[in-house]
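Troubleshooting log. The previous structure file for this entry was overwritten by mistake, so regenerating from the original sequence record. Sequence copied from the archived sheet and checked twice against the printout by T.R.
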Amino acid sequence: MKSETFQIVDGTGTPAPPDRPTAAQRLDRLPTASFHRRMAMMIGLGLFFDGFDLYMASGIMPALAASGWADIHANALFASAGALGALIGAFFAGWLGDRRGRKFTFQFNLGLFGSMSVAAAFAPNMEWLIALRFLMSIGLGAEIVVGYATISEFVPPATRGRWSAVLLFVATASLLASNLVGYLVIPTFGWRWMFVIAGAGGLVVWAMRKSMPESPRWLELVGRWREADAILDRIEAEVSTQTGKPLPPLANARVVAASTFTTRDLFRSPILRSTVIGVTLNVVALSALYGFIIWLPTFLVKQGLAVQASLGHTALISTGSLAGVFLAGLLIDRWSRKHWIVLASVVSAVLGYAYANAGSLEATTAVGIALIASLYLGTTMGWTTYVPELFPTELRLRGAGISSVAGRAVAIVAPQAVAQLYAINGVNAVVYSLIGLLIAQAVIVGLFGIQTNRRSLDMQFVGNH
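Regenerated output below.
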């Protein structure tokens, strides 16, 4: 394979040595070591509390309604405010992450959602709570965009899918944790303590992540190659010491030139196809989340269950999310992301139909577990793994951010749409709408999806620009 290189110039105008190995060459050859696990832990913990804060809305909304603070329309506004904040956060995370770096953006968004979540515990009325939910969600939306994109820039291609699955497993555990904690805390201590738990956890992780390194790929692209090399030297020394073996030889990697792409390239060939796929995956994933999953306790309350009982059944159904992500981690690097996403979409559509026609609470719970598992298997393959791989390094966060913005835009109207659909034909109308989106996703990804498995990041863009 022919090697393509480029000249990198630092801020003083000093070019990098012509024989300097790139960050991609040095990172992609490394065996898995404690460095990778430490990066995954720091990113994963942030995603855990991000998810905890996001998912706890499903337990807080029925509690707000039961206490007289909100009706279903006020709850829909609460959910929509969160979705709007997350949209803004996703947009600015993409821009900020590609301009100021991954680490800076990480710390900004984590500090924002942690502090605003703690403040929400002291909200004097529903109006203040909705406003604070909007502000904390700016950080929530940004954390997701930066987290999955950043891990993809540190881990080798052969296991990139598995590491993304590990992160989503940790993040998804927050769904189960938020439901279980809500089941124990809300009836006894009230909903305010949920905000305290999420916010305090986020701020602790913010302090821990001060030691996290910047992405050498990003530093290299903005000309800070000396800083990139210093970080790479430390990473390689740690890995070599831990394994006790010489590092593998450098690959004859093909890379794309620095500062080649601009934001406009996201909307023209060859990257337009990636943008369409990224938008589709985000729209469907967030429609499932905001239009179905977080409404499960409310649906069950409307069917006659008490608030605490609905939270208990939702916690049981949510175990399917962990099963789906765990299964995805075992399978994700064994077959094309594209084909897994299509298969998961079709299976989820079939299970959605079965859920809508389940005849008892027991059947609803059993099918619900399988449906959530299938939805999260597809989310692992697509939203968290495939989307960051679709874009070149210069545009990775902007591409993931714009894709997320599209999903968040749908998420803003999803709660209002759910309220209207539920009024027409109950939960069946909601589920049938989700089935339509899943079928559309299978068709789009099946027709336009590209191969990214076991390939160095940026490889598919070499020679296309």
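DSSP finds 16 helices and no strands in the chain. Archived copy saved in two places this time.
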